[in-house]
Specification:
alpha/beta, Lambda_DNA-bd_dom_sf, Rossmann fold, elongated, 13 helices, 344 residues, transcription cis-regulatory region binding, six-stranded parallel sheet, transcription, 3 domains
C-alpha cells in the first residue's frame, strides 16, 4: 500500500464524487438532502481515497492540536506489567496536561497494523502528531510516515530513525559501564538476557555487551533472547544456570526479567549475590522490593517521556529540531551484586 503525500480532505472527496462538501457531510451524517445513489457514490469514493469523517466530530478546518498518538506493538498483558511504559506514558501525560491535550494510545499486533492505524489517525484528523517507539533496523514504518508528512518524534538512536527527530538514551555506553562494573567485582563469566534482536535498542545493547567483553578479555559472554516477559526471563535464567559454564553474573534487559531470574536462583538454591550477581535494566520500584534488592541501570523514565512529548510539540509547531540525547542510564548498586565466591 503506497502512502499518500497529502492528507485527504472532505474537499477532495467532494470533488472526486462530483458533489459539494455539504453533500458529503449530509451523506456521512445520514441526513436527508442527497439521493441514495449519490450517497453510495460518495461512500465509494471515500473508501477509494481512504477518507473518513473525523470520529471525534471536530471541525475539519480546525488546526489546534488536542490529541497525539502512540501505538505500541506489545501484548497487552506484558505492557500492563512493565514499569517502563507506565512511567514513560506518565511523563508524556504530564506535558499533555499542561496543554489540555489527550493521548490516543493503541496496542497493535504488527508493524503493518501500526502503519495502517497511523494513516487512519492522520487522515481522519484524530491526532496532531505521533510518537514512534521500538524502532527496528530499516524500520518499515519510516517511509510510510514520511510520505504522510506526519509530525512525529521517534524514541531510539538516530541511526534507526530514518531522519525523523528522536529522543534517545546512550544504551551502548550504559551497557559498557554495567559490564565493566561486574568485571571490576571479579566476574569473568557474564551473561546477558536481552530482548528481541530485531529491536534496534536490543541490537545496540547486544553489540555493546559483546564488544566490551572482548575489550576486557573475558569469555565470549552468553546471550539469551527473550520477549521481555517474566516467563521468558525465568526460562533464560534457568537455561543459563543449568549450563556447563554457568555464569557468575547476569545482566537483564528489564526489571521484570531480573525479578524472575532472582526467583529462579532461589528455586535452584543458588545464593544471590554470593554465588550469582544479578543486574537489571530500567530501575523501578520492583527492584527495591525484592530480597536482596536488585542492582540496576537507572534512568528517569518519567522525564524521558516528558522530553519526548515536548519535542513532538516543537515538531508540530513547525520547528526544525535535532535529535537529542536524554540522560545516560547510571549504575545503582544494591544487594544483588557482589564479588563472586572463589572457586574451589
Amino acid at each position: 500500500m503506497s502512502a499518500p503525500t497529502e492528507r485527504i480532505t472532505i474537499k477532495d472527496v467532494a470533488a472526486a464524487a462530483g458533489v459539494s462538501k455539504g453533500a458529503v457531510s449530509l451523506a456521512f451524517n445520514h441526513k436527508p438532502g442527497v439521493s441514495e445513489a449519490t450517497r453510495e457514490r460518495i461512500f465509494a469514493v471515500a473508501r477509494q481515497l481512504g477518507w473518513a469523517p473525523n470520529s471525534s466530530a471536530r471541525s475539519l478546518s480546525r488546526q489546534a492540536v488536542d490529541t497525539i498518538g502512540l501505538a505500541i506493538c506489545r501484548p497487552a498483558k506484558l505492557l500492563g506489567l512493565e514499569p517502563f511504559y507506565m512511567e514513560f506514558i506518565s511523563g508524556i501525560e504530564s506535558v499533555l496536561a499542561e496543554r489540555d491535550c489527550s493521548l490516543l494510545l493503541r496496542l497493535v499486533g504488527s508493524l503493518e497494523e501500526e502503519i495502517q492505524l497511523q494513516e487512519r489517525w492522520w487522515r481522519q484528523r484524530q491526532i496532531g502528531g505521533s510518537i514512534v517507539v521500538d524502532l527496528r533496523e530499516a524500520d518499515p514504518r519510516i517511509e510510510p510516515l514520511r510520505g504522510l508528512k506526519l509530525p512525529a518524534v521517534t524514541v531510539g538512536h538516530p541511526s534507526l530513525t530514518g531522519g525523523f527527530p528522536s529522543v534517545w538514551t546512550d544504551d551502548a555506553t550504559a551497557v559498557g559501564e554495567a559490564v565493566r562494573y561486574l568485571a571490576a567485582l571479579g566476574h569473568r563469566r557474564i551473561a546477558r538476557v536481552g530482548g528481541p534482536t530485531d529491536l534496534g535498542h536490543s541490537a545496540i545493547r547486544a553489540d555493546a555487551f559483546q564488544s566490551t567483553m572482548r575489550e576486557l578479555g573475558l569469555d565470549g559472554g552468553q546471550h539469551m533472547e527473550t520477549d521481555f516477559s517474566g516467563e521468558e526471563g525465568a526460562r533464560a535464567t534457568r537455561s543459563l544456570l543449568l549450563s556447563a559454564h554457568r555464569p557468575t553474573a547476569v545482566l537483564y534487559d528489564n526489571d521484570i526479567m531480573a525479578v524472575a531470574g532472582l526467583g529462579v536462583a532461589t528455586e535452584m538454591g543458588i545464593a544471590v549475590p554470593d554465588e550469582l550477581s544479578l543486574l537489571a535494566w530500567d530501575d523501578s520500584q520492583l527492584c527495591r522490593l525484592t530480597h536482596p534488592t536488585l542492582s540496576a541501570m537507572s534512568h528517569d523514565v518519567h522525564t524521558f517521556g516528558a522530553k519526548v512529548a515536548q519535542a513532538l510539540f516543537q515538531v508540530i509547531a513547525g520547528d526544525d529540531i535535532a535529535s537529542r540525547p536524554a540522560a545516560t542510564p547510571r549504575l545503582v548498586p544494591r544487594g544483588s551484586t557482589a564479588p563472586p565466591r572463589p572457586e574451589r
